[in-house]
Amino acid sequence: EPFVADEYIERLAWRTPGGGSRGGEAFDPKRLLEEFVNHIQELQVMDERIQRKVEKLEQQCQKEAKEFAKKVQELQKSNQVAFQHFQELDEHISYVATKVCHLGDQLEGVNTPRQRAVEAQKLMKYFNEFLDGELKSDVFTNSEKIKEAADIIQKLHLIAQELPFDRFSEVKSKIASKYHDLECQLIQEFTSAQRRGEISRMREVAAVLLHFKGYSHCVDVYIKQCQEGAFLRNDVFEDAAILCQRVNKQVGEVFSNPETVLAKLIQNIFEVKLQSYVKDQLEEHRKSDAEQYLKNLYDLYTRTANLSSKLMEFNLGTDKQTFLSKLIKSIFISYLENYIEVEIGYLKSRSAMILQRYYDSKNHQKRSIGTGGIQDLKERIRQRTNLPLGPSIDTHGETFLSQEVVVNLLQETKQAFERCHRLSDPSDLPKNAFRIFSMLVEFLCTEHIDYALETGLAGIPSSDSKNANLYFLDVVHQANTIFHLFDKQFNDHLMPLISSSPKLSECLQKKKDIIEQMEVKLDMGIDRTLNCMIGQMKHILAAEQKKTDFKPEDENNVLIQYTNACVKVCGYVRKQVEKIRNSMDGKNVDTVLMELGVRFHRLIYEHLQQYSYSCMGGMLAICDVAEYRKCAKDFKIALVLQLFDTLHALCNLLVVAPDNLKQVCSGEQLANLDKNILHSFVQLRVDYRSARLARHFS
């Protein structure tokens, strides 16, 4: 622990009798001083002893340092002498090595010509045997020496090529015949070894044949025999992968150029086995069944591409990617050239059939939505005036929108996009994807959704119809759901195909145009539906509201809290609000409810101004408006609630005492209203004509 002087002195004083640190003892300064003096002397003695010991150790350390430095100097001298001896030895070794290399070069210079001369003598001897027409040498007669015979005949064959034909035609033909016989024997030997599974013998024979013209025939035989019994299952692609995996392990042990042999095997599999299999699968349905043809084409191309990916693991030379791509293209080129035309034709007929089958199930004869001339004029008039042109059609509650139809159309298009991605040339991919998208827009958006909107618009009754059934909101709900699905497919399946091409802007514009076109019709239909709702409310009020409701004959005997007309209107409004919430989503709900709420307020405002109010009738009107306001809360729109709050405040003018009219009119809710509006409500009081009331309000 670190030394602390205060603590040390404190402990010393505590141990000393009379030190004053222990309780019950008298403090004795003399004894404490004596103890301190003695202790200081002891410490001085101890310090002198330790100092002597330190000096002794320092002297010893200096002595050992000198001895160590002397020893290091001696070692450096020894090392320098050893290094000098090593340099001398290295120079001597280099000199000897130079002499040995020179001697080796001289020996090689003498031996090489000698070996060549001996080899030339042997070849001349064998050539003479061919000249004499009788092969006596053991190398030609002994079948076990076929390797040596092959080496000799191969060299003789090269020599014979240089000899003039007129003088050596006979011997040249004999050498050529023997060359051919040996070549056939070697190939036969290779074939037998392959059947026996003797890899070492196959490697030996292949090495000999490498210098013969028939080496390629040896490779062909190997490839042919490899495929025997390899394609026995139904899955030719899996069989091909297994075969190539097996051959890849073996070919390096047999041939000196394994990548070339393996590439030739793969080429043979593609051009013979796979091409034949693909042709059988596709030609069967090419003209009779477009759906099955496209499915088979996509499946076969995908499986071929997957096989190609597996084969990329093997060593096939420098540019294996291009090699395999060319093989795939050679198989499918005749089918891919007109793929998109087949795809579009199938998609068109299939989509038309799905729609027609749906309309047939509804026993509905699809109406023709005309274009040009009269129809365009009607459309412009309808958009500007929102008037229903032509007779209303009773759809019997049918929206003519089907999620099943939509899912089927989107599923067909999704599969078409997947096929397009796989089968289209990269340069044609955006253009082909756009054509498929155009088909989807035509049949889903135009032929199905747009037709349903047109039919729905035609089915909306006029605003003065009684007990009208309003089904257009169901059309809105289903169209909204369908558009979400349409938008999801656009983003998930079309965008990846066109994202980096000029077709992107074209597709986005086409989508924007079709959405805007639909939104115009949806807005028009919603607006006319709201008009119908207000019309229904008018019918209820006209049928249920009586003039005596607000001027009861017996002012003291009014038992109802609000009128029957109010109850029925509120019940109707709540149903419509719920229907709107169920039919739309997002900000559209608030927008439509705000519009309905404003029109609802205007209707009630104008309706209340048709009656005169007694004191009790005014109270009943306030109760009605309170109920309308409670109904307005269901809208959850601040503006609508504010309008009904103001209307409720206006109704207070019907019952307030004449003396308090000015005070009420200057209240928070009525202060900002036009004076004519306030006056119009005061005029509804039965006692308005009394001079007192008129005076107070003026």
From TrEMBL:
Domain of life where this protein originates? Eukaryota
Which Pfam families does this UniProt record tie to the protein? Sec10_HB (PF07393), Sec10_N (PF20667)
Q: Which residues form a coiled coil?
A: 40-78
Keyword check for Coiled coil, yes or no: yes
Q: Does the keyword Transport apply?
A: yes
A GO cellular component annotation in the UniProt record: exocyst
Query: Domain Exocyst complex component Sec10-like alpha-helical bundle: where?
Result: 148-697
Gene Ontology biological-process annotations: exocytosis; Golgi to plasma membrane transport
- What name appears for this protein in its UniProt entry? Exocyst complex component 5
Where does this protein come from, organism-wise?
Chloroceryle aenea (American pygmy kingfisher)
